[in-house]
Amino acid sequence: MSKIKLPLRDIEFALFELFHFEEHYADYCPSLDRSLTKALLNESARFCEDILAPLSASGDTEGCRLVDGEVITPAGFKTAYQQYCDAGWPSLARSAEFGGQGLPQSLGIVMNELSATANYAWTMYPGLSQGAMHTIESHGSDFQKQTYLPALISGEWTGTMCLTEAHCGTDLGLLKTKATPVGDGSFSLTGTKIFISSGDHDLAQNIVHIVLARLPDAPAGTKGISLFIVPKFTVNADGSLGARNGVSCGSLEHKMGIHGNATCVLNFDGAVGTLLGEANKGLHLMFTFMNLARLGAALQGIAHAESGFQAALNYSRERLQGRSLSGAKNPTGVADPIISHPDVRRMLMTQKALSEGMRMMAYFAAKRVDIAQHAATPEKRQMAQDMLSVVTPIAKGFITELGFESASLALQCFGGHGYIKEWGVEQNLRDCRIASLYEGTTGVQALDLLGRKILLSDGKLMDGFTKCIQHFCQDPTNAPELSPYADSLTRLHTEWLGVTQHIGALAQQNPDEVGAASVDYLMYCGYIFMGYLWARAAKTALAALATSSDEQDFYRAKLATARFYFERILPRTLTLVATIKSGANNLMELPAEQFAF
Amino acid sequence: MSKIKLPLRDIEFALFELFHFEEHYADYCPSLDRSLTKALLNESARFCEDILAPLSASGDTEGCRLVDGEVITPAGFKTAYQQYCDAGWPSLARSAEFGGQGLPQSLGIVMNELSATANYAWTMYPGLSQGAMHTIESHGSDFQKQTYLPALISGEWTGTMCLTEAHCGTDLGLLKTKATPVGDGSFSLTGTKIFISSGDHDLAQNIVHIVLARLPDAPAGTKGISLFIVPKFTVNADGSLGARNGVSCGSLEHKMGIHGNATCVLNFDGAVGTLLGEANKGLHLMFTFMNLARLGAALQGIAHAESGFQAALNYSRERLQGRSLSGAKNPTGVADPIISHPDVRRMLMTQKALSEGMRMMAYFAAKRVDIAQHAATPEKRQMAQDMLSVVTPIAKGFITELGFESASLALQCFGGHGYIKEWGVEQNLRDCRIASLYEGTTGVQALDLLGRKILLSDGKLMDGFTKCIQHFCQDPTNAPELSPYADSLTRLHTEWLGVTQHIGALAQQNPDEVGAASVDYLMYCGYIFMGYLWARAAKTALAALATSSDEQDFYRAKLATARFYFERILPRTLTLVATIKSGANNLMELPAEQFAF
C-alpha cells in the first residue's frame, strides 16, 4: 500500500465547517476548542501514519499464532499498543471518574476512524475494549466498575464481547453457554463462543470478557440471556491479578482477512464470572453498546474506502498507459497517466464521493451520540436518540456495503496489479469484507431499520430525519446553484414517504413484505441521506467560495464531487424504488426445494 | 465448500431446449447427437466432481512453490492432469489433422465451464494451452504445427500466452521484450514478462510459450509487435525434447486467489524462438485467440456464481436461525432454515437468476463461435462473427462483474461463517476477483464494445442483436404470459437505440463521452441481453409445461426465475440510463491534482 495520508483537511471540513463541532463542543466540553481538537487530530494522525500503518501489511502476512494456548500477535503490534497506551489514547472518551479524560464520544469516533484507516486489524484490539468499557460503565455495579474500569481505561487490560456460538449468531435466543451460581454471588460459566475478535492476545496483562450466557432457571429464547464479566485472570481484592480463569483460546479462526486480529474460539470451562446488570436482561443491556459497535463497523467501511481510494488515486496519477481519447495529456511521456481516462475517473470519483459522503454520515451520527448522552433536556436527548435509532442501521448497512464496493473499485483501478499482494489493495478488499457481516449483517440492519424502527413507530422515527431534508430544501437563503439538489431531494422526500407507506400497507397483509423490501429500502434511505449531506456540503463550499478563501480548489472539488454524487450515484434510487415496489411474491413463490435441480 | 454438483439439468435446458444444439450439431458435427453430447457431459462432470473439485480448497491452501527454479503445483494437481489427458479431454475440440477429436468449440466451452466450476485454478493449466493451440492452429507454419500441435493436443505439453510486462498490460504498444534474428531463421528473445498464468509447472514435460516481442527494426507502438513461439525445452527434429531453453520462472506472484495456478514472472534470456505469423502483425494475430480467451474469462464468472450459489443454497436450507415473520416454517425445530427469510431468498434468487442467465449468454455466444468457423456461406459466417464481436465484450465484462457480485452474495448468505475459510465461499470470492481484470479489464471491454464495435460501425454491429429482440417481441405465437416481458423488452429496445444515438452524437463533440458512458453502457447492454434470454427461457418453459412433461417443477422454477429477473434485476437499467446520459463533464471537470487535499 502506498503510504497513507490521513484526510485531515476533509475531516476538519466535516467537523468544523459542515457540522459546527466547535460550537457543539462548547456546549458539552468547553475545553475542547477548535485548536485543541485539531492538535489532538494531528497527534493521533501522526501516530497512526507512522506507527500503525506500517504494520498493516506485515500483520496481514504474519497473522496471529496460537502457541501453547496463548495468542501471539504479529511483530510490532504489542509495541504499538504500548505506545498507544502511553500516549493516553484509550482513555480519551472515557469517564473521568475512573481515570478517563472525559472527552466526547464523537471525538473518540473520529480517532477510531484514523486508526482504522491506518490499520484495521490492530484497531480492533482497543476497539473491542471500548465496547466492554462502555457496557461496564453503563450497567456495572460500583464494585465492578472499580475493579475493571481503571485498568481498561488506562489500556493495561483490554476487553471483548462474547456473543456468538457455532449454532447462533443473529438468533442469540438459541445460545447455550451456561452460567451456574456457585453460592458466593459469582457464577461458573461453561460453553464455547466463536468469532471472538481480540479474544486472546499478548498486548495486555488481562482480558475482560463480557459474555452472554444462560442462568439455570432462565426462560427459553432471548428473554433468558444474561450478561457476565469473565476476566482472563481473576482479580484480587487489592486489584492485583489472581489465578488464571477457566477461559482459553481453543483455536484461531482462519479468515479471509483482518489476519492481524485474533479471532478466537473461546472455551469457557467453569470460568468464574459475575453477573453484569439484571438477570435475563442481557440482550437488552447488550444493545446499549451494540449501537456504538455498529457505528464502529461503519467506520470500517469508511476506513477501507479511504485507504483504497488513496492507493488508487496515487496509482492512477503515476501509471502511464494509453492515450486520452481527447488528446495526449502527457505528450512527452510514453503514455498518459490513467487518471486521464474517463472510466478511471468514474471509479475514482465514485470512491471519493462515497468515502467523503460516508464520513459526513458518520459524523452526523457521532454528534447525536454526544447529544443523546449529554443534552440538557430529556426532549433533546430523546430527539437525538430517535435520530440515532434510524441513522445507526443505515450507517452500518449502507456504509459497509458501499465500503466494499469502493474497495473493489480501488482494486479495479490497478488492473491486474490490484490482484497482487504487494500493492495492498487486495488486502484492503479482504479486510473490508467482514464489515457487512459482523455486528449484524446488512439484512439484520435492514430489518431493524424498516421493521423495528420505521414501521413499528408508524413512521414517527423518520420525522427528525425527513425534517432535516425539508428544512434544507426550503431554506430561502440557498444559492441558486443548489436548486438542482434541492429539487431532487424534494422529489425524493415525497417519494420516500410514499414508498414507506406503500410497504407499510402491504406488510399489514403479509409480514414477508417487510423482509422483501428491507435491504433495498435501507440502501434507498442511505442514498437519499447521503444526497442530503452532499447538498449541505455544496452549500458550505459555496459559502466558503463566496469569501476570499485561499482554498478555492478545495471547495471547488467539493462542488464537483457533490455534482458527481447527484448525477452518478443518487440515480441508484431509481432502481431501488422499482425493486422495492415489486413486492414479496417474486421472492417467496419458489418452494425452497426447487431452487436447484 | 459443500460438494459441488454440476448443473447438468440446467446445462441441458440451455443447450438442447433453448438453443437447439442438437440440430446445430447436426449441421456441423453429425456424430454429435443428443445422446453422445449428454454422455460426454456426464463423463466430464463425474471427473470434475470426483477428481478436480476435491483439490480446489487444498490447492488454495497449499499454493504453488518455486523450488530450484522449477514450479511445484499443489498435491494432486499433476495426477489429475494425467487422468485428464488419459481420458482425451485436451483434444476434444482440436483439429483432427494433429490428433484432435475435431468436436465443435462450443462443446469445449461447455466442458471448460464444468471444470472451471469444480476447480478454477487447475482449469487454467489446460485452459491456457487451448489459447496457445488455437493461435498455432490459426497462424502457425506447417512446420510449427507439426512440431507443436500433436504434443499440445494430447496434453503431453501445455502452452501459455506471454503478453504483459511490468510497465504495460492494457497498452501493449509499450512492450520492450526484444527478438533478435540469429541468422538461421530463429530469434533470440530477451525481456521479462509478468502475470504469466500457468507459466511454469510440473504437470507436463514441456511448455510452449506464445510471446509478444519486438523485432529490432519494428515500428514503435502496437504496429511493431510480433508473435513468437518459445518452448521451455527446444524440440529436436525427431520431435524429442532438446536442451533447456533460456526462459525461466523468476518468481511466483503472490495473489489474492487462484493460488493453485502458477502466475509467473518469466525471464527470457536469449531464449530461442520462431516467428509465428507475419512480422509486426502480432497484436492483430493475438486477437484471434483473445476473443476466445475473453469468453473463457466469462466462464469464470459463471463458475464462481454457480459454485457460490450451490454452497449458499445448501447452507440456507440447513442453517436454522430466527423465525419466519409469516409463521414458523420448521415449527418442530429450534428455528427456521434461513431460506425462509425473504432477504436470504433475494440473495439466492439473484445468484440463481444470474448464474443461469450467464450460462445462457455464454452458450448463445458459443453457438456463434461454431457458426463463425464452420457455416457453409461467408454471409452466415460473417453474421455470426458480427454478433460475436458485440457479444464477446459484453459477456466478458458483464459476466465477470456479476460473477463477483454473485460470489459476494453467496458469502453474505453465510453471515460471519462466510468469512471463515472452511466453508470455501471466501476462496470462491477471492478466486473470482481476477476475472474482471485479466484478458482486458471491464473498462477495456466497454471501450471495445462501445467505441470500436458499436460507434465505429455506426451501430451496424448492433443489428443482429437488436433483431433477435424484435423478433422475439413480435412473435405472434407468444403465450399471453410472455406479454410483460415482451413489452418490457420492446420499450428497452427503443430506449437502447436512443441511448446509443445519444452517445454517438455527444462523442462527435467530445471523444471522452465514449469512455464516460462505456462501462455503464456495457452493463446496460448486458441486462437487456440477459432479459431477452430469460424471456426466451420463459417461452421454452411455458411450451414444456403445455406438454405433459413430468418435470413441471423444473419448468415452473424457470418461470419464477424469469419473473424475478424482470422484476428485481432488469430495473437496474433505470439507473444506468440516467448515469449514461449524465455525460462526461461530471467526470472530467476536476483537475487530476485536485482529487485529494
Automatic annotation (TrEMBL), chains A, B:
Cofactor(s) the protein requires to work: FAD
Domain Acetyl-CoA dehydrogenase-like C-terminal: 465-591
Superkingdom per UniProt: Bacteria
Gene3D superfamilies according to UniProt: Acyl-CoA dehydrogenase/oxidase, N-terminal domain (1.10.540.10), Butyryl-CoA Dehydrogenase, subunit A, domain 2 (2.40.110.10), Butyryl-CoA Dehydrogenase, subunit A, domain 3 (1.20.140.10)
One family name in Pfam for this protein: Acyl-CoA_dh_M
Domain Acyl-CoA dehydrogenase/oxidase N-terminal stretches: 39-156
InterPro entries given in the database record: Acyl-CoA_dh-like_C_dom (IPR025878), Acyl-CoA_Oxase/DH_mid-dom (IPR006091), Acyl-CoA_Oxase/DH_mid-dom_sf (IPR046373), AcylCo_DH-like_C (IPR036250), AcylCo_DH/oxidase_C (IPR009075), AcylCoA_DH/ox_N (IPR013786), AcylCoA_DH/ox_N_sf (IPR037069), AcylCoA_DH/oxidase_NM_dom_sf (IPR009100)
Chain ranges of the Acyl-CoA dehydrogenase/oxidase C-terminal domain: 280-448
Domain Acyl-CoA oxidase/dehydrogenase middle positions: 161-269
Keywords attached to this entry: FAD, Flavoprotein, Oxidoreductase
Family the entry assigns: Belongs to the acyl-CoA dehydrogenase family.
Listed name of the protein: Acyl-CoA dehydrogenase
The organism of origin for this protein: Cellvibrio zantedeschiae
